[in-house]
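Quick illustration for those who missed Monday's session on complexes.
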Amino acid sequence: MQFIDLGAQYRALKAEIDANIQTVLNSAQFIGGPQVAELEENLAAFVGRKHCITCANGTDALQIAYMIAGVGPGDAVFCPDMTFISSTEPAKMFGAASVFCDITRDTYNLSPESLERQIQAVLAEGTLTPKVVVAVDILGNPCDYDAILPICEKYGLFLIEDAAQSFGASYKGKRCCSFGQIATTSFFPAKPLGCYGDGGAIFTDDDQVDKLCRSICVHGKGPGGKYDNVRVGVNSRLDTLQAAVLLPKLNALGSYEIDARQAVAARYNAAFSGRFIIPFVADNCVSAWAQYALLAENTAQRNQIIAHLTEKSIPNMIYYPTPQHALPVFQNEPCYTETFDAANYYCAHTFSLPMHPYLDAEQQQMIIDAVLEAL
Ligand SMILES: Cc1ncc(COP(=O)(O)O)c(C=O)c1O
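Prediction with pyridoxal-5'-phosphate bound:
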């Protein structure tokens, strides 16, 4: 059994993926082939954004977003305490401070209340300038944008939506990747839309930001092309082969995979409701179910379940064992008065089960039985 069965997906899409790869091999256009432009157009249309700029991975996409927001020394970047390090790593890289905010107890996403408390703490303290909010749709579940957007507006903050885990999800009828001045995603193989290596994308509605991204991705190229370097940039692009793989995968995601993920999550929810804290998806929202995470009664119970699953060869993971504020790399970041109770609680109790759109009911029942046995 696989935690995320990429082999099953490949078997379902083999004919199209193989044909697309062969087309790229025949053309020998491995960088910037027509598949990249087609994919960017399809991705932008899928999420309802004007522009999509593909790049080498989701971390680069975030770093480029930080560059466009102009993050530098003396700036404060607000970020949820429960995420993957990529969300906030560029802040440190550019000499800014990562100001972590607690998460909500229901969706485990950025808490709007904690965000506003941290912004006010930064302003009261007076040494840092509030600059950017990174809203991460954690586990594939969208943030509460109706609450976060007005806070960003009130304090004049640049919003980046980190949708690395939520491609295919939606918030009140709007697809993830459509929030913030810039949204970013990842095509890491295990993501809801994954390629066969590394890949990422940046989304914006702003023509200027689109131009800037395209320049930064190619060493700060100017109007004269790639040897007319007008700014410091990076080398970050999606290979043509990865675009060729992603084209049929995007169609599958839109036409049936997102629905299949809902069915898998519903079966888990029915089995675990009343025994664990099951995931919460707000009204009018759709999760991409990048992960299916349960909260055990306590850490000992969580660890016992994990040990039992591992013994039975059932894959399992902890996303994430350590809140960001407690990582050694962030030990000197300012916490102000936040105690991160919700993030600490989540990290100490969470465990994740196999979740992918090709998980059949029989296999899923084996997982459910093994979890219940462990109790
Ligand atoms: C929330 C989040 N942001 C950013 C990234 C970075 O994506 P990549 O691995 O493509 O660099 C990840 C990947 O795991 C992620 O989970």
